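ugh finaly. both done.
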Amino acid sequence: MERHRLPLLLLSTVICAVSAMENAAEPPIIEPLIRNFTNKNLQVIPGHDGNVTVTTLVMEGNLITLSEEDRQALATYPALQELHLEGNMITGVPAKYFSVLPRLRVLSLSRNNLSSLDPEAFAGLDFLTELDLSQNLLMSLPAQLRGLKDLQMLILKDNPWNCSCPLLSTIKDMNAANVSIGGPQVICASPAEQAGKSLLGATALCFPSPTPTVNIDPETPTAPAQTQQSQSSTAMLMTTLSTSQNRSSEGACARQHMEVHSVCCRLGANHLYTHRVRHQGAVLVQALPQLQTSATAGG
């Protein structure tokens, strides 16, 4: 009997050892992909232990300032796609601060005290599709936002925007790239002539519609200034002569012509032609010496 017990004991020992090894090899329990630390009064973003892949981190309603310690903590979430930092104590965003999150698609900085953004604040976020900067103290935007090629939504409402041409140039280009400027209350606070206008509507002052181009026939010569003056003199002459069509005496015609020249001051070719047609050339011959004298004096 004892000879049979020994193999059984060995077999039982092996089975227990294999079972223990299998239990040790079991993967840890998978935690949720969302980490939510809302309203925890945290001053620093908690780091991640790396056991699970966190895709969404919610830090709303804390005391986060985006310190270097916060950036190091964010680097422990390399697969993060959404970062919510609403309602914290953030006043600025340093250059390339979020570049440790290369897969980030949604970034919300709403309801902070943001008053400035480094020109390279969002550098490295090549997959960012939504950026929420609403309810801050921003007056301008870095032109480098144009480099966010995947951006689809830019939320800007409730900021004291300075709608000068640099800002409006950035907004115009992003709007042309089909980026939606979200929020119904995107209103200009300054300068004075733009205050109260919508951010998109204010672009009209800096980027008015192009003036229509008038095509001029190259074969049509441009009338010189003297010709235009002569045409004006012709019109005045016709008006004056129309009031005295019944005067036929040469003296009366000459006097009338001199009256016209006291106004026109210059004799032109159109003027002479009109006078000739009006009087059939009869009186003009006698009047020419006087007209020439008048034209010389007017010149």
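ok and the 2nd:
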Amino acid sequence: MSFTRLCRPALRHASQSRPFHASASTSMPRAGPVDASNRRARLDDIISEEDLMEGVNQGDDTSAGGHIALRQMRQTLYYLRLIEHEMPRLVAYRKPFVPPTAANPLAVRSISYGGEEHPASRKRTVVVPVAHLPLQDKDAIHTFKLLAGPRWSPEPPRDAGVGPEEIGREHGYFKISCEDYPKGPMNLKWISDTLDRLIMEANNQKKKFADIPLDTRHLDAKARKAKKGGHAYGRGTTRPTLKDFPKEWLPASIPETQPTATP
């Protein structure tokens, strides 16, 4: 027998490699076959089929944009139903309009967003003609205008709710607003107290400001910002016309001379 034949069995046993983490079949017996019905029963105990299918698109749902459009349509339909069924009931609360008199010269303006929370809803604005305030004389009116500063204007503000034909325009208008406090009545109370203090200081006879002219720089800045002819330097508040030409600059009229007859 040759040496090769003797060594062949030993070499064959050594060449059979096995992974280092593997173990013999006798150390870990294989589990037997598992019944499919038992496995399904255990899964049903953990989660049901309805839970798996919940939220799954079955092909009959719309996109996100479609849901937004449907929500807007439902909101529009809600307000249309309010107009149809609830608005006629407001007729019972209708009151006739009574123009304000000299006893109630204040015009209070506020902003409402239909019950929704908004920072601008607490703001209150008051506009009042200076001629309707309880000021004693012309000196008190002049002092009040000085104290008002840029809050005074000769013309009513556009958002004041004051018509062009209302009386009391000879001394201009006073406008004041406040939004520092969290509630609207609190801001209105501050405006009322401030207006009372201005009137009291204007009626103080111990202080005279008749020699101090009015500061109209805020009016000039407003005219320049509007750019309607009064923004150019030296033009005032309106564009000049031929009526504004000084008459003293016109030459004296020269009498017409009669033509002399030539012989």
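summary for the 2nd one i guess: Residues 64-85 form the longest helix (22 residues).
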